[in-house]
Amino acid sequence: MMTRPVRGFDFTEHMRLLCVDMTQRIAALKHIQMNQVAVGFCQTRKDVRHGFYASLTPMRFEAGSLLTQRKGKTYTLQRLFSPDGEEILYILNFYVPRFLDSPFREKLITTVHELLHISENFDGDIRRFEGRCYAHSASQKDFDERAEELASFWLATRPPTELYDFLHEDYDSLQKRYGRLFGKRFPTPKLIRLQQDIS
């Protein structure tokens, strides 16, 4: 029995292919194995422009640990596997339509920004900096400028235009062209308290 092709635009698959190319061309991202990064989307209200454009959820705690302690209690995190049995170490979500309604270059910068958060050890933890602001270093401005620099570098390497042409369009124009946008969704992983706490 033949299956009918799904009509519409597979947003998360296009974003996954874009990220694969970025991790191959940008030296600072070459440690990332995209087969262990789940790319999904979250729906946002169309008339609200403020809020997240994308987010990265690590599937491990500090230094790649499966365990963490909070107020003397020990927790692990719900684990996620691909259909091929590959363990997912990160969930990269894009917030639609908000992400698609931002300017073209901002879309590229946002994507690189989130990929930059992935630990250089690719162990399921985020890239950590010294000090209180361990996620963005002492200066979020510097972190953002680094993401912008790398996005510009990627574009200058002349990647195939079919990888990113869709980012020149906003949500409404893509929907008008393809009929609908669809893609993968991933629930927020749950914290699981272990019965036996670490003393």
Categorize the overall geometry. Answer: globular
Largest beta sheet: strand ordering: 2-6-3
Strand-residue proportion: 15-25%
What are the secondary-structure elements, in order, as H or E?
EHEEEEEHHHEE
User: How far from one another are the termini?
Assistant: 58 Å
Task: Describe the sheet with the most strands.
Answer: 3 strands, mixed
Percent helix: 25-40%
Average pLDDT rating: 89
Count all strands and give the number: 8
The tally of helices reads 4
Structural category is alpha/beta
Contiguous runs where pLDDT drops below 50 for at least 5 residues = none
CA gyration radius, whole angstroms: 18 Å
SSE inventory with pairings:
Layout: E1 9-10, H1 11-25, E2 37-43, E3 54-58, E4 67-70, E5 73-77, E6 90-96, H2 104-116, H3 140-156, H4 171-178, E7 181-182, E8 191-193
Parallel strand pairs: 1-7, 2-6
Antiparallel strand pairs: 3-6, 4-5, 5-8
Helix pairs in contact: 2-3
Tell me about this structure.
The longest helix is centred in the last third of the chain and has 17 residues, at 140-156. This protein is of the alpha/beta class. The strands form three sheets. It has a three-stranded mixed sheet, with helices on one face. The protein contains four helices and eight strands, in the order βαβββββαααββ. The model has no long low-confidence stretch (mean pLDDT 89).
